[in-house]
Amino acid sequence: MLRRPTSASWLALHLSIATANAWMPAAHQQPAAAIGLLSRRAAACHALVDPLCPSEELCAVTSEELFAPSPPDRRTTLGPAARARRFGQRSAVKYRRLMQRRYLLLASVQAAVLRGGADVVGRSLIPAEAYALDVEATNVYVHGAALGFVALFVSGVGCASWQRLLEASAGSETTPEIIVLKCTADYFIWAPIANTLYLVLVPLLMGQTPAAAFQIMLDGFGAVSLLELCIWTPYNLLSFRFLPLELRPPTQSALAALFTIGLSLYC
């Protein structure tokens, strides 16, 4: 004589069958729906085996509904363009959160890498006769490392701190008056300090005497300031209007690659 299964046996049977039929992607993508599906299928399996099932509502499930596959994972139905767009959106959100937590560190590293790399590329493409400081071809990478080291502190720590100070002093409003005030302060206060540091420190790191480095600064300061006006002032008009503080360092570093090629002509 067959023995009637116990409640523990029913529970083990229900969970086994329901787990086998419920797809894991659906449980990962929609936890609430998957849990409901597990419970309903467990009750249905109980009804098929046990004619004394206590709940008619739960037991009123057809075999087609019981063994129907779970809904497909939405991630497998997205096309390449949609997946790339979603990846870009998630990456931008994560990057902005990281910038909020490690603002100075990331700004410094980006400035050093991009400015140093741009200097190496510029000196590799432009003839050596065009540069104020005579650097042999074998020292191109040394010059790039020196400029990147200065950029780590000037364009990284210095510029990022200046942007924070400017934002705290003038406010984050995007009215024309505030934007013009920020651009004016940036060009007449911070830009001369940063350009002077570049024009003096890079030659010093390359072995020039203080007098020679000071003369290089005097000779190139006017041209670098004009380059600053042509490149950074239009950028600042747009960045102060549309970009939050956390997203300015990466865009500044990308644009600084172009500015660095011109800057390295004079240091």
General description of the model:
This protein has 267 residues and is mainly alpha-helical. It has two domains: 7-74, no CATH class; 103-263, no CATH class. 78% of the residues lie in helices and 0% in strands. The chain has twelve helices and no strands. The protein has helices at 7-21, 24-29, 31-49, 56-59, 63-66, 74-77, 80-101, 103-125, 140-170, 176-205, 210-242, 248-263. The termini are far apart. 25% of the residues are buried.
Describe the structure using short key phrases.
12 helices, 267 residues, mainly alpha, 78% helix, 0% strand, single chain, disordered N terminus, globular
Q: Distance between termini?
A: 98 Å
Count up the helices. Answer: 12
Describe the largest sheet: none
Percentage beta strand? under 5%
Which consecutive residue ranges, at least 5 long each, have pLDDT under 50?
1-5, 22-35, 46-59
Number of domains: 2
The coarse silhouette is globular
Estimate percent helicity. over 70%
Overall pLDDT confidence:
74
Number of strands: 0
What string gives the helices and strands in order? HHHHHHHHHHHH
Return Rg in Å: 32 Å
